[in-house]
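Q: How would the C-alpha cells look for this protein?
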Amino acid sequence: MAPFLKVALPLVLLVVGQLHAEPFFGNNYVIPQGARLGNAANAVVRNLEAAQTQVRSPNLINPTASQFLSAGTTAFREYVGNTTAVLGQLFREVAQVSTDRVTAPAVVFTRLNLSLLAVAQWNQNVTQSLAVLQQAFDYDQNNNTAGFFGFWRDAIGENVNDLAAELRQLGQHIAAIGGQPMNTQQFLQAISADGTLQRLQDVVEAAIRLSTDYLSGVTKVVTAVRAANDFQSRAYSLIRSNQGFINTAVDRYSAASNASYGRFLTAADSLVNHLKDTNQSFVFRWPLLFSGEVHEKLNLLNQSIDLLTGNIMLRTITVAGELVKTSALFKTGDNPLAYLRDEADLLTRILLDVLYGDNYCAPAFITPFNALPAQVNSLVGACLTEQTNLESQGSAQLVSIANNFLRPYVTFVYGRLNICFQQPFDKMTECLDNIVATIDFRGQFFLLDIASQQFFEQVQEDLPTCNDRVLEFVRNAGLRENCGLHAGTPSPV
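A: Here is the predicted structure in C-alpha cell form.
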C-alpha cells in the first residue's frame, strides 16, 4: 500500500493563551514564496475542477447504447468526482495556508491535516471505480484506460505523501512557536529561511504537472465516450434492423418450406390411399385363386406402403425439428450478426483507448463495419431464397414421382392382373403368376423413399452450411482480421 495511505500528521494543536488585542490582523503582507505556493495550489485546484466540469452533463453524456459502456462511464464519473472533492479540498487548504493573514498557524494546519486524512478513503473509492473501469472499458489484454488512471492515482498519492512529509516539518516549527502572537503569514516568513517552503512549493508544482496530465486524460476520455456511444448506438441499430429483416426472411422461408413439404405429404398420402384401395379391391375378388407367389407379391406391396409411410413420418418429425434449429440459428444463435455484435463491443472499447496514442485502424474501420450488417442480410437472404426455390423444385419432383410414376405404375400393374380374370378359369392362376413375376414393387417404392430422404437431408444441411459460409466471410472482413486484433492479445498502439 502506498505510504500516503498511512499519513497521519502529528501536528500539535496549540492552545494560544491570552494574547494582545487582535494580534492576527497587524500584518497584511503575503510573502513571495507564500504567493507562489498559493498560485501553484490554486492551479492544481483549477485542473481538478476543470476535470469535474468535463464529466458533468452535457460534457459527459450518460451512454445508453450498452450496459458496459454505461457502467464504465459511471465509474469514470465517480473517479473524477471523488478526486475533485478530496484532492481539490486538500490543495484548496494548501492555497489557504499559503496566503492566510488572519489565522493562527495551528488552526490552518489542523484543517489541512483533516483534509489529508480523507485521502485514504479517496484511494479506496477510486480503486473500486478503477475495477469497474477496467472491466468495462478495457479489452483483451489491453488496460490502457484503467491503467492510466491507476498510474495517476499512484503518482498523485506519492505526491500527497511528499506533501505530508513537508507538513510534518512545519508541524515541528508550529510546536516550537507555541504561545507566540503570530498569524500564518508571519509564521511562514519566520520559517522560510530553512528551505521548507521551497520544498513544499516543489511538491505542489509537481502536482500541477500531474493534474495537467490528468485533466488532459479526462478530456480525451470524455470525447471518446461520446464517439464510442455514437458508434455503438448506430452499430446496434444496424444490427437490430438487419436482424429483423433476416428474421422476416427466415419466417417467410419456414412458411414456404412447410408448404413445399406439405405438398409432398399430400401427394404421398393420396398415393398411399390409392394403392391400398386398389390392392384391397383386387384381393377381395378371387382370393382362392392366388398362389403363394401372388400372395407374397401383394403382401410386399403392403409392406412397401407401410415402410414408406413410416419413413415419411420419421422425416416429418426430423424436418420439423431441423427447421426449428435453423430458425433459431439465424435468429439468435452463433450467426454472423451475433459475431458482428461482439465486434461492435470490441470496437467500442477500442474507441475508448485514446490515452496512449491512437489506433488508426479501428476508427477508420467504422464505415466498412457499418456496411457489414446489410451485407450479411443480403447473403443470408440469398441463401434462403435459393433454399426456398430448391425445396419447391424438389417437392415438385417428389409429387411428380408419386402422381406421375408410382400411381400409374401400380394402376397399370393391377390393370394387367385384372385381365387374368377374363381368362378361362383353369388359366387364371397361371396368368396371375406370370404377371406377378414381372412386378417390382419394392424397387419402385424405394425410388420415392430414397428421393425424399436425400432431398430432405439436403434441406437440413444446406442452411447451416450457408450460415458457416457467411460467418466466415464476416470474420475475414471484420475488425479483428483487418486490424490485427486477435482474442487474448493486446492491440497495437
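The CA atoms of residues 174 and 253 lie 87 Å apart.

The radius of gyration is 43 Å.

Upvote if useful.
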